[in-house]
Amino acid sequence: MNTDLPIRDDLRGLSPYGAPQLDVPVRLNTNENSYPVPDAVVEAIGKALQAELRDLNRYPDRDAVALRADLAAYLGHGLTADQVWAANGSNEIQQQLLQVFAGPGRTALGFTPAYSMHPLLAKGTGTAWVDGYRAEDFGLSAAHAVEQVERHRPDVVFLCSPNNPTGTALDPAVVAAVLDAAPGMVVVDEAYAEFARPGTPSALGVLPGHERLVVTRTMSKAFGFAGGRLGYLAADPAVVDAVQLVRLPYHLSSLTQAAARAALAHRGALLATVEAIKEQRDRIVSTLRARGHQVADSDANFVLFAVHGDQKAVGGDQKKAWRALLDRGVLVRDVGLPGWLRVTAGTPSETDAFLEALA
User: Fold this and answer.
1) Exposed e or buried b for every residue in 69-93, given b needs 16+ CB within 10 A?
2) Phi/psi-derived region of residue 126, left when phi > 0, alpha when psi is between -120 and 50, beta in every other case
3) For site-directed labelling of 145, which of 124, 183, 186, 187 has its Cα 20 to 30 A away?
């Protein structure tokens, strides 16, 4: 980067977000859905896009009303279109939330290790970031979360359930306690909610009566729609109105809206892979534990594991282990936690390749 440019001082020396994009036989580093889009859905999306092409000289529906209605119907919980907002991935959704509820002179609080984009989005919007941290076992108790909220009085609190990169869903008591204590907005990032183990509740269930609660979701993971870039939120209608103050004009193209609506119309076919992915996730967890690895409980489509094959000690060089796996054709994610790596649960053959390479 040309350091002679008048870049903001707080951005100098930073690196952009991004996982390595390498051409290897087995890519298990970005939590994508490993299964390709089914032919019937490809055809349906193709027809939906074809229908939009002649009118590309016109701007899209800037409020994406039909898409928001479809998303509300998918989420259930009695939600309606005026309680849902959509953008280009959940990252843009969260950026918009920070733009309208945070910014210069305001503070966002998160609990790391968690989604690494949250502090970057905070910095990009001029928001002060406070790290409340998690326990050594990556857990987050209601008492600790509330203590951090009361100490810092943040304008926005980020909670991840299931949490990335650790994978475990939050105890609902944590969300409830933070909602009671937080003076500002509470954002629950549920990007991996469809992969949660049975009985795991969603924060969508507590939206009624909580005007300052926002639940963010994505179609990138369970829907296998990562290339489509569609994220969304559910919240009180007042939140949706507020976010529109900072959204760019016509931010969702007509092609994106059409493709996403076609995907939602065929959600049965797309979500059919979720159970298969969960099976591979649980297989990875049980196999690694049987081999002596420490493994975090996972409600997501990935697994965080200690590279040291001894449950009594989290040791080993994760960078060396990452390179050794890559040399064997398997790309996983080094999330910067000493001694730990994260692997996406993919197809059975990809799991075979990962387990063999790690062995």
Assistant:
1) bbbbebbeeebebebbbbbbbbbbb
2) left
3) 124
